[in-house]
Design a protein that fits this description.
mainly beta; Neuraminidase; 5-stranded mixed sheet; 26 strands; 41% strand; SGL; 6-blade_b-propeller_TolB-like
């Protein structure tokens, strides 16, 4: 069982919790969005909102995990959260489940027990071989709810092939079960980063860069390094016209499927692009390099990312390798930005310069909290006291 710890050096099994209270002024409320999202200076976790009780500032605590949680998504209507870790020097990668009731972290894939690998060739033709459990190199994840407490789980996979893997996840029983449905191999040379299922049954992904050339020269060449791609069973992969971008990263889709949203990391902004193709529209500019995107149930997007001074190939590489342990150049802590894609507004809803967490990649709504993941530390940073309602959103907006 994994608990929120009071000290990273506590003995195994200790159940104390670590809470940090950043300066309240570091939490900037969203006046335009507060009425609909509940973010901002609100009740503490467990409060019902409203009333005349004492004001509580935001709190930061941590859930210890076994690997750095690069991506996080809550399963709506359940107590379960899926986290994905990329392969690193000291961790294998793969996916885990977190039970929000007791914060227990358990393996999801590879699983502790054998799972069914039954390819759905009608949905995913040509994919007969399952992903290699010995190479659990997962990355971006997303879900679609298929029934009461059942979900399809879409996973970017780098282990032996560049692909989108699709699993079925059933959390109706006491112990969730997972089975593999199939895969879609990425276009030649494409290194996928994030994925989202389309309402019409297709898939959209970000191609962050091309494997046929070195990464960092592409990111800093002054030319787009990647683009958005869509896949349909009948037609296969197609590049979205006009979507050539500088480090396209996190991706989400509108409820009607007409619009894709992506973090253009190297331009430090989030943009929207018509799924059928067209010019990108800037929705938000930020001081950090935005990474993954997550919907809230209010129809806003959350993002976080990494901050470098300066943003150069050498600095980005140095910070990534050291885990942001260069204090003058690799900025510690993180910001969370909320974007209203309809109103075209955005605001920082939380900011901290804590040295306890860095290299953030995802800010995901989980109940009344925001769970922040990253690539540097084996824990989830939990921001509470901002949110008075359930915001986890699965499927499409």
């Amino acid at each position: 069982m994994t608990k929120r710890t009071a000290d990273r050096h506590l003995p195994s099994g200790a159940a104390a919790r670590k809470r940090l209270r950043p300066v309240v002024a570091a939490c900037v409320a969203l006046p335009a969005l507060l009425a609909t999202t509940g973010f901002g200076s609100g009740g503490a976790p467990g409060s019902q909102g409203g009333g005349s009780g004492p004001s509580h500032g935001p709190e930061l605590s941590f859930i210890d995990t076994h690997q750095p949680p690069e991506d996080i998504i809550a399963l709506p209507g359940t107590s379960w959260v899926v986290i994905s870790a990329v392969t690193g020097a000291d961790h294998p990668g793969g996916m885990n489940l977190v039970n929000t009731r007791n914060e227990e972290v358990t393996p999801l894939w590879p699983a502790e027990e054998d799972i069914a690998y039954t390819p759905d060739l009608e949905a995913f033709p040509g994919c007969t071989a399952p992903p290699d459990e010995a190479l659990p190199a997962t990355h971006g994840i997303n879900t679609v709810q298929t029934g009461e407490r059942t979900f399809d789980l879409y996973v970017v996979y780098h282990g032996g092939r560049e692909s989108i893997e699709v699993f079925s996840l059933d959390v109706r029983g006491k112990q969730p079960t997972i089975s593999w449905r199939g895969c879609v191999v990425a276009p030649e040379g494409a290194i996928p980063n994030s994925v989202v299922a389309l309402p019409d049954g297709g898939i959209a992904m970000t191609k962050f860069w091309d494997s046929r050339s070195p990464l960092f020269p592409q990111l800093f060449s002054g030319e787009p390094s990647g683009s958005l791609w869509t896949w349909h069973r009948e037609s296969g992969w197609a590049e979205v016209p006009g979507s050539q971008l500088f480090g396209p990263n996190g991706i989400e889709v509108s409820e009607d499927g007409a619009t894709l949203y992506t973090a253009e990391t190297m331009k430090q902004r989030v943009v929207s692009i018509p799924t059928a193709g067209g010019d990108p529209t800037e929705l938000a500019q930020m001081d950090f390099l935005p990474d993954n995107l997550r919907w809230t149930e209010a129809g806003t997007l959350l993002t976080t990312g990494q901050e470098y001074v300066p943003v150069t190939p050498e600095q980005v590489q140095a910070c990534a390798v050291t885990g942001f342990d260069v204090p003058d150049s690799c900025i510690p802590g993180f910001d969370i930005v909320e974007i209203d894609p309809v109103a075209g507004t955005s605001e920082t809803v939380f900011s901290t310069r804590t040295t306890e967490y860095r290299y953030t990649t995802v800010a995901a709504p989980v109940g009344r909290e925001i769970w922040v993941g990253g690539n540097a530390i084996n824990s989830i940073a939990v921001v509470s006291g901002l949110h008075r309602g359930h915001s986890a959103q699965g499927g499409h907006r």
